[in-house]
Amino acid sequence: xxxxxxxxxxxxxxxxxxxxxxxxxxxxxxxxxxxxxxxxxxxxxxxxxxxxxxxxxxxxxxxxxxxxxxxxxxxxxxxxxxxxxxxxxxxxxxxxxxxxxxxxxxxxxxxxxxxxxxxxxxxxxxxxxxxxxxxxxxxxxxxxxxxxxxxxxxxxxxxxxxxxxxxxxxxxxxxxxxxxxxxxxxxxxxxxxxxxxxxxxxxxxxxxxxxxxxxxxxxxxxxxxxxxxxxxxxxxxxxxxxxxxxxxxxxxxxxxxxxxxxxxxxxxxxxxxxxxxxxxxxxxxxxxxxxxxxxxxxxxxxxxxxxxxxxxxxxxxxxxxxxxxxxxxxxxxxxxxxxxxxxxxxxxxxxxxxxxxxxxxxxxxxxxxxxxxxxxxxxxxxxxxxxxxxxxxxxxxxxxxxxxxxxxxxxxxxxxxxxxxxxxxxxxxxxxxxxxxxxxxxxxxx
Length: 446
What we know:
The relative contact order is 0.17. α4 crosses α6 (152-170). By secondary structure, the chain is an alpha/beta fold. The chain has 16 helices and 13 strands. Helices cover 41% and strands 14% of the residues. The longest helix is centred in the middle third of the chain and has 19 residues, at 152-170.
């Protein structure tokens, strides 16, 4: 039997890409509109998707020109909301769809986070995933009392300890601890509720967690580390990995590196999928799909691209000289303690790190990255299914795709995925016909 491709909608960007200006988008003067989110959730469940995923950053981008002005003007990475209450609302109009929520271990405390996620897992009846990140965004750091980014290695050490503490807290109350005996008045067995007494480098937590164990006990852990250090962290903490779509050879290398790291952690690589971040524009014809794709890069201001790129690399791209090599730029990013992987690293892998490039050429490439154009599948449902199958099989047939869909996008783009691409994948035996699991973790493994 063919292995199934898993699909999720990545709705991290609610009002930050150019398509919000086009007719048919969800965004209006009432944004945010809870009905918009509820409709997206109902449609995603109708299509049998695993989850809707929300990445996050908590500051208005200020790396570009050391200012928030252009970010505010063009709506880059803002407005962004604390998504937990919105997820609670969406869960009430669905029964099977999962929800991915993002917090940065650099800024949060594991006790608070473990308790919050436990509550959300109860509310959703076992449908929560926790995307744990370290953050390389200067504006986020500024909001939590930091002047500069912390050391790259230290961020991942903190992340690993953070998740270890969360796991111990989720296990600090046994699933069968609660008795609720009306006759004796006993609520729970004290022998099954234990402090964790954690004292580590970054956290000191006594415990236990003051909750009833949730349906999944541990929410599904997602992690997007793509650097060598990030891959080791993912192997230590993640149930599934959120990966950037690249060329197939680069994706195969990431899968190989992750498998080796999982083995070194004593884990089974077959049980850890990679969900590749992509976009899909489906049309009845190739021409229709390509025309929709071209709207993604139409009339996008260079300043907006600069804000997006600077925010997501941690380096002020307004400082770029007229000509430079990608190696020189990568060295500047690393020196700033920003992420050593991502757009610039992918561009260097594709064109060669010694390649000299002009500022205008670089921003032309950046436009396609900022809008998602460079990771967008565009074509008929049959063609897109062919491409997805090739990538899926080429990277180990474990995981699937995280398709970026925003309320700022045209609603038709989402519906075309559900009404054209999903049926084509089902016809090929690559997609579920029903939800088989009782919670998100089980659905991601079937």
